[in-house]
Amino acid sequence: MEKGAVTEKEILAHFASLDLTPEARFYIQCMARRFAYLLNLTQQIRADIDEKSIRIMDIGPSYFTDLLCRSFPGDEILCLGFDSENSRGGHFPQGIQLEKVQFSPFDLNQTQNPSQWIAIPPCHIIVMAEVIEHIHTAPQWVYRFLRNFLADGGAIIVQTPNAAAFFKRLQLLAGKNPYEMIRENSENPGHFREYTGEELRILGKQEGLRCETLEYRNYFPAGNRLQRLVFGATDLAAPTLREGITVVYRKALR
After folding, report:
1. What CATH number should be reported for the domain whose range is 8-251?
2. Whole-number pLDDT of residue 89
């Protein structure tokens, strides 16, 4: 994809010609706006790095990995995560070929055992989008692992649902649990723990990462009129009640 501001429509058009399952097409429709926002943010960070070629790591094979490959043809794209039939579907589609990606199979839950950490070359940008909520080990271990192979001055982008979003608060007030039960599929178990923006800021600080950006966004689709009204209201006046959180961390230069 060409450089410049990418739109949700362009993301949808990019994948429209592929032979995808109904599940995969629904996933793309739900994630197109988030993908566009994340890709534009990655491009902004890349533009500030004065290097001819850099390494960009995507945590978890996904459609976004494909977008990175097409948007940064001069850079080396790496990927880390699961590679199995159980992890396919929306998050790891059958129809996407990632032959040019250096893939490293690794379970981030194993970060609590530093002796099992795998060697990764220094990366200038690490993208961990919609992943941290799926990990059952302490997030401090995950951050330490990522920081270990983040290049000096490099950036980590973390995206995750907002644990304190408006509709989750509303469900709790009604006596309902806003979080789904953990699934029986151990490689796609759902969400173990969601986070607030302040928790993510503190996590980064604890692990020696400066929080450069902390932003709340409604980049997930509204399912009905009430959701559209609430999204509009939170877009105007209540950012901490929005559905999604994006954090950019920086590692200090030595």
Report:
1. 3.40.50.150
2. 45
